[in-house]
Design a protein that fits this description.
The protein is α+β, with helices and mostly antiparallel strands and 96 residues long. The protein has one domain: 2-Layer Sandwich (Alpha-Beta Plaits), CATH 3.30.70. The two termini are 25 Å apart. It is elongated. Helix content is 23%, strand content 42%.
């Protein structure tokens, strides 16, 4: 099971990273806080101070087209907000 799916790179999380050393990740739905902490520490080689998780349920979506109404659902996700200790930073752009 891959714990970390992808980092969240938005204006809000970029500002949190600069000011408060907090970074966001989309994680596997069944991952717990200890698994997330270990995965971040192994991948980015930083000391994790705290892990907060949020579960978002999918929403129903529909749109009108010429051929009728198309209905669907967005995916459910789990987000983790990681607080990094001290002056350590995570650089998402170093591998590009």
């Amino acid at each position: 099971m891959e714990i970390l799916i992808r980092p969240i790179i938005t204006e809000k999380f970029t500002e949190l990273g600069e000011k408060m050393n907090r970074y966001g990740f989309i994680v596997h739905k069944n991952a717990n806080k200890l698994q997330i902490k270990k995965a971040v520490e192994d991948l980015y080689r930083v000391k994790v101070e705290a892990v907060n998780t949020i579960r978002y349920t999918g929403k129903n979506k529909s749109r009108n087209t010429k051929s009728g109404i198309i209905a669907g659902r967005t995916a459910s996700v789990k987000k983790a907000i990681i607080t990094v200790a001290g002056e350590e930073k995570i650089d998402f752009y170093s591998n590009i």
